[in-house]
């Protein structure tokens, strides 16, 4: 009897231990990808189809996942061109083979519609039956094309108590196309990520595959402003006084939530796209297990406001900002408008080039321009030019000649061109110039030509139509 009781207890302990292993919280919940295989994925970005880019980026992201991560894949629009029910489970969510998912993605050929709501319903139905929780990642390059509303589908599933987190990555979408997707991601307790190109998609996927349903909710919210407006910024949290990254998020002009176990951290915040303002480091940021704290960060820096004119009129000009040591900081183009550039406080040398003008003063340098923190420093320069109208004739008729203009003072060539039997209008800096007109296509001493000097005065036009001999 005692032996039987012992065996029974041993069996119960084994069964209990085995059950605990199956429910081990260290085994991650499934990630289910919903993959856009609509016809628009044949579109190109930087010389590659969106299909190729998405396949490569997803393969890289999937390969970085833990070995015990279960992965499912659903695709839409890949079998029938006009079918709003063309949604297929290619890999079930109990799969643990990365290679199986990658191979399935590589084999997809985009074709049809974009049934976002119906594809989300297909995944939710699977979770309803399995009673499992999961992370759903939807990658789409288009908006709903089948009259569904994915936001309503997700919100209703959440009310029903189905346990999932939905992230949506919009790939190459236009402004104004994302509202329903953002609504759905928010309703699904996830985030919407906007990816304009391969780099953006890679960054979004790196973040999204770590923000799973198993990860605790963020306990630090960071909102970044620039000039009082929400800024798309990167936020990176480090263990204090180290380069060890604990968590990182992109704000997408909204509050980014990081999960940081209760401790003290250093935050580095910087503008997501190109900018000359250095990253801002915030030391000793405290987090707590039982509450969410918030940080509002301003990345205003300093500003250079350019007003570049030609004879008093706003002019299309190139700008280069350098340190006093000659290191490039930032550049830009005015397009005949005022131009504001953000920089760190400091002292700079500035190079200006007036487009479509020629001559020794079409470029200029401004040295030791100082700008303080939070200040706007006005940078003004007026290029002074006149116009030369030049042409050649032979026997009194318009003649095709080459034009070479040399600055009379420095001896440097400032313009070369051709008339094609028409008079040529050339904008030149104020000064004296030696002009040579020479018969086009003849490269020896027999070429007909004419040489003369012109004087350019500010705002005036000089016309010289010369007979070549």
Automatic annotation (TrEMBL):
Keyword Signal: yes
UniProt keyword Cell membrane, yes or no: no
Source organism, top-level taxon: Bacteria
Keywords, sorted A to Z: Signal
Pfam families: VWA (PF00092)
Domain VWFA: 30-208
PROSITE patterns associated with the record: VWFA
InterPro entries linked to this entry: VWF_A, vWFA_dom_sf
Signal peptide boundaries: 1-19
Name the UniProt record assigns to this protein: Ca-activated chloride channel family protein
Organism: Ulvibacter antarcticus
């Amino acid at each position: 009897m005692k032996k039987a009781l012992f065996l029974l207890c041993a069996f119960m302990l084994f069964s209990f231990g085995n059950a605990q292993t199956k429910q081990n919280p260290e085994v991650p919940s499934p990630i289910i990808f919903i993959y856009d295989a609509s016809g628009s994925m044949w579109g190109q970005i930087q010389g590659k189809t969106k299909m190729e880019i998405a396949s490569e980026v997803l393969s890289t992201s999937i390969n970085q996942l833990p070995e015990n991560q279960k992965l499912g894949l659903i695709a839409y629009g890949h079998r029938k061109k006009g079918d709003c029910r063309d949604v297929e489970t290619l890999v079930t969510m109990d799969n643990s083979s990365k290679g199986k998912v990658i191979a399935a993605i590589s084999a997809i050929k985009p074709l049809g519609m974009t049934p976002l709501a119906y594809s989300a319903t297909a995944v939710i139905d699977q979770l309803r039956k399995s009673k499992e929780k999961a992370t759903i990642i939807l990658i789409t390059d288009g908006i709903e094309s089948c009259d569904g509303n994915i936001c309503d589908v997700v919100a209703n599933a959440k009310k029903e108590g189905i346990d999932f987190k939905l992230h949506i990555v919009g790939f190459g979408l236009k402004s104004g196309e994302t509202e329903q997707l953002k609504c759905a991601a928010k309703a699904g307790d996830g985030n919407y990520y906007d990816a304009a190109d391969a780099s953006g998609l890679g960054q979004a996927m790196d973040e999204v595959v770590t923000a799973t349903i198993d990860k605790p909710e963020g306990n630090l919210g960071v909102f970044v402003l620039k000039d009082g407006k929400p800024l798309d910024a990167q936020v990176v949290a480090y263990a204090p006084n180290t380069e060890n990254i604990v968590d990182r998020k992109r704000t997408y002009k909204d509050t980014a939530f990081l999960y940081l176990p209760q401790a003290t951290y250093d935050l580095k915040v910087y503008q997501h796209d190109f900018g000359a303002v250095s990253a801002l480091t915030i030391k000793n940021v405290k987090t707590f297990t039982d509450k969410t704290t918030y940080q509002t960060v301003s990345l205003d820096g300093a500003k250079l406001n350019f007003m570049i004119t030609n004879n008093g009129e706003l002019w299309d000009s190139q700008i280069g900002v350098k340190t006093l040591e000659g290191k490039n900081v930032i550049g830009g183009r005015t397009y005949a408008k005022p131009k504001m550039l953000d920089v760190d406080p400091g002292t700079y040398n500035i190079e200006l080039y007036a487009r479509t003008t020629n001559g020794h003063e079409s470029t200029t340098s401004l040295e030791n321009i100082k700008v303080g923190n939070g200040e706007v420093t006005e940078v003004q320069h007026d290029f002074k030019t006149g116009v030369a109208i030049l042409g050649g004739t032979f026997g009194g008729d318009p003649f095709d000649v080459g034009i070479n203009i040399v600055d009379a003072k420095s001896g440097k060539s400032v313009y070369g061109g051709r008339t094609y039997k028409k008079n040529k209008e050339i904008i030149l800096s104020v000064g004296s110039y030696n002009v040579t007109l020479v018969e086009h296509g003849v490269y020896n001493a027999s070429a007909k030509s004419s040489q003369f000097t012109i004087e350019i005065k500010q705002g005036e036009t000089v016309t010289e139509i010369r007979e070549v001999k």
